[in-house]
# Entry
Amino acid sequence: MSHLWVDATAGIAGDMLLGALIDAGADPVRVRAAVDAVLPGAIRITTAEVRRAGLRACKAEVTPTVPDQPHRTWRDIRGLLGSAPRAAAVFARLAGAEATVHGIPAEDVHFHEVGALDAIADVVGVCAALDDLGVTTVSGSEVAVGSGTVRAAHGVLPVPAPAVAELSRGWRIRSGGTGELATPTGLALLRTLATTCEDLPSLTVSAVGVGAGTRDTPHRPNVVRVVLGALPAPESPPAQEAVLLEANVDDLDPRLWPGVISALLDAGADDAWLVPILMKKGRPAHTLTALCSPTAAPAVRDQIFEQTTTLGVRSSPRQKTALARTFARVEVDGHPVAIKLGHAAGRIVQAMPEFEDVAALARALGIPQREALTRATHAAAEAGLVIGAAPPAG
# Structure
């Protein structure tokens, strides 16, 4: 697993993090392609080597190529980000913070500075860069947020700005200097993508990237650093004793097979499945297989004899290694969807919507199942149910 640690002790902004990831090796061509897929022809991204307080850094210039930058609602932005679930999760967190600050529903939030084209490009570009680098988990340092005041669409605001203060809940912050050092977009990216606030963890380092902010402040490098590497391998879940039961069947009405498999699962099998085979004299048949614990094996074997026409059942000892599993629930347009989570060493390894719930969602909303699956996946990401995150308590 490839881990990314974000050093935001000098502050953080979307373009700074994007520059750091490109400096660490993310392909600018792939980043631009991802942004262009969301905002066709509306953004130009260039990179240049600059100096900040005497240190080399990569400056990512994200420049709109069209004049109109409307104040978009969260609904507008979510429509743009339909194929980018991680980017949608970032803006969902931003919408939640702005909704809290202004006392309105998240759906009614009108983004101003963070709804501009360049901010959308920052978010999409960062998520694309993480994918290109193969990053699976993210953590970050405490964040320097700055001090003083900043001029925004709502007038002159104290630093940290209200949205930044709201996004800081549960994260370590400090002043770290004068002016606005952490932007809402930058902090939303960190809070959505990173699962832990920590000092630099133990890593086998593969790359380091430095991204520059616009200002060059004397005696304080205005940069974000990222460190990419491999975490120490977590302990594997312990292996469990299991029994594999098998029978070859060539004379059962195929309409009965779904009921057979259900009966084996009800009898205690952990899994059961069919494999098409060709038996003697060219007869088409199936191998029925069930995996179960040693204590459940007698009951499962009895069901194989009772539910099928086989005259014999083979058994062999096995070992299986299973992730711990829990379920979390999210809502999609008012409908519940269960998310099955597999986790190990305190981190989510697999996260997938239950397909029966997805099918029910599709029927309820009158949409294709693939669209329902996309919406459920987005909802899981917005809830923080992503690979590398800590599983929900309980």
About this structure: The chain is about 30% helix and 35% strand. The first helix runs from residue 14 to 23. The chain has three domains: 2-230, 239-321, 324-382.
